Amino acid sequence: MKSIKILIVVLFFGLLGFSLEMGSLTGKMPVLKGKAPVHTSKYFVAHGEIVDGKAVFNVPISSSNPLIVLLGVKSDNVAMDNVYKLKARNFHTPELENMEVPGMGTRIDGKNITPGYHTVVFDVKTKEKKSVDLVVSEPDSPVALKLTTEPLAVKVGDTVVIKADLGKDVSSINTMVKAVVNNEDVIYLKDDGEYPDEVKGDGIFTASLIADTDKPFSPEMVKVEAIGTTKEDVPFMRNATATFMVSNPKTFVDGSIVDNGNSISIPLAPAEGRFRVEVIYGSGDLSVAYVRDDIVLNGEGKTVVLPRPNEALEADRAIVRVLNMDTLGVEIEENIFVPQIKDFDEDFYLIKARKRAIHKLPVSKKNAAEKYGENPPHAEVK
Amino acid sequence: MRIKRLLFLVFVFSLFVINLSAKTGIAFVHGKGDSDLANYSVAWNYWTSDMLRTASKGYSIPLCVCHYNGEDYMWVAASQVAGQLYDFITQNGIDDLVIETHSFGGVVIRWIFSNPNWDSRYQTIINATRWVNTIAAPQKGSEAADFAGNLEGSWLTGWIVDLVNENTNSTHNCRTDSMAYYNQYWLKGTSGRPALPKNFYWISGWGLWNDYWRKFHYQDIGLATLSGVVGMPGEDDGMVSEYSAEAVGYKWFRTEANHHHNRRNDYKKIGEALATDF
What we know:
- The radius of gyration of chain A is 28 Å and the shape is elongated.
- By secondary structure, chain A is mainly beta.
- Chain A has helices at 2-16, 346-357, 363-372, and strands spanning 21-24, 39-41, 43-51, 54-61, 67-71, 75-80, 84-85, 88-92, 104-109, 116-124, 131-137, 145-150, 153-155, 159-165, 176-181, 185-189, 204-210, 217-229, 235-247, 258-259, 263-268, 272-283, 286-298, 302-307, 317-324, 330-337.
- By secondary structure, chain B is an alpha/beta fold.
- Chain B has helices spanning 2-21, 40-47, 49-55, 74-92, 104-114, 122-128, 143-150, 169-173, 176-185, 212-215, 218-230, 242-245, 270-275; strands at residues 24-29, 63-65, 96-102, 129-135, 200-205, 250-255.
- In chain B, helix 4 packs across helix 5.
- The two termini of chain B are 38 Å apart.
């Protein structure tokens, strides 16, 4: 009898496919459509031509101790406002080029500079370059650009909100915030209290756009530049970039997702390609279990039935996802309610999560960590 | 009683035999960079001979230096790496593989371990692996990659966008928002996601200037400058913040070595630390 049961289980999973995977989870339930990170910038990038061996920049400085960096070439002589010479340090760091940042440059640690517009002149010796970048970073400045594009994962036709929070110190009237989407479309962000902006004059500039792409899946980059003054009339400039991911789905839910108690049925419309069907079970905002399977569609539709794992009996909700394995796009993502079969024991859950986080290092690793590991006594000066 | 004792002895003996038959190997997976990292010699130089020799105990442990195009997305790079690891494992009979990764290499390997059915070779690699050591992996992305996006063009200051090159795929991959997306949908190992099938142990870097002041080492000032310009949150190694390097796996140790030094056996003896696994 027992062997027949085992055979049935093996056949069941065999029919589902060898790619079926399930297990327990700990941590927060994911946010539908993803949670975009906040890009915080206290810097801006200026671009200048090299004329007669000099690169000249007229830049707004909003703090007294900025870090000014010329990227791409070295300079032996740097002057500010044609009045005094700045102490500069040249560097050559090919390592930076791995991240597509020029490896050569000149660094100036500004001290006691009066906020306002300043002209910085670099003497450069180069025949190859006709233009160069200047980055001004102002860690002490009260003005920070906090940029988000929400949501992170969208489909063609969805609305994306671009939010540039410059803080309450900036003058909304004297500040212009502009976004360039994929080096093509230009959008002005507003702080006028009209949709999608929420509060007029709060220093949060907002705009929205409709996600669009011809490709099956496309990361879309938004470059934001803000230029203006603070309420105390100090000029500033900031840059930041953010990306959101646009999917052009091939399939959709043909009917509705059905919870069968011990499984979930997901009817997929006809399509071609490889897809991952995934269910994440949760109780409240905590994730408890997952099940997933990879399938292939050859132009036909299919109802995918995923069993409910034992660990998911305490769940009261689930997120059903279909991901496109050919494009890496999100085809379907829906939140559904599922009947709770067993009471959720949060204390037990937290103990389990804590146990999972604690790991006893193998002896060799423990000894190596003691010998080679170091903890910083203090933060390093950057 | 005798039978139980006998069975116990047989069990212990079989464990001993199994242990004797295990064949250990070591593999290195480099980080992002140029397309020429697809060449074996360039990948070798990325790590340096001293690092590879020290970590493999004077080359006494079979060694595989993976080499892939440093401009590719993680899944493209993973395919190249999987081919090399699969051949290394099957041709040498390796069943106890320790994988050492630096920077983006840790993300590339995590792709393989997160998607065992993606490629028929992945499961063989996972089965043969003892554990993975990740050095300064941008598991939640790098603010330096976000910054690189700003250098593509600046309309306010007159940069002509048409003349500007796009970032490479690997730089896009390393952005913090891209990694947030991949962590949410495609990768295992972060909070709220399925566990990785094998243990990952992280080494994160918190130092910047390293031996700049003593040796005027030219690599260190650039990394310290990039860290300062970008304003990376918390401590970082000049390229990757510690919060990101520590987002996946278990803590092994933190090092002062910056992003240049922590793939080498020079400023800090990272190679010697890796060799303690054998």
